[in-house]
Design a protein that fits this description.
34% helix, globular, 117 residues, 3 helices, alpha+beta
């Protein structure tokens, strides 16, 4: 089994209920193709580095997936025709990083670091 980190960016005007539907839709596609969703993270609405299809912001959803290559093929085939999505990216990894939380607020990170000291 291969390990993948997969991120999708939905349009900025996508409602929270639509975000949940997108998450469920793509989770089902992974499970249907004998893959496994290890973890799903909703990173929220973030600024884009540049305009994508006239959008300045996007809602990020991140999946950690365990499966074969055909899982990603099917996932990306479906995402390519989805009008609610701006971009998607899949990266093959050797192991999952469950410790880092890249999109937490700086205050939360400082509190965590102070507790360790």
């Amino acid at each position: 089994m291969n390990l993948y980190e997969h991120t999708i960016i939905a349009r900025q005007d996508t409602s929270p209920s639509e975000i949940k539907q997108l998450t469920e839709k793509y989770s089902k596609i992974v499970e249907k193709n004998e893959g496994e969703i290890v973890k799903t993270e909703n990173w929220g609405l973030l600024n884009l580095s540049y305009l994508i299809k006239k959008n300045k912001k996007g809602s990020y959803i991140h999946f950690k997936i365990k499966g074969k290559g055909n899982v990603i093929d099917e996932l990306e085939k479906s995402e390519a025709i989805d009008k609610k999505l701006l971009r998607y990216l899949t990266v093959k990894v050797k192991e999952f990083d469950f410790n880092s939380n890249y999109f937490s607020k700086k205050e939360d990170t400082e509190k965590t670091e102070n507790k360790r000291s």
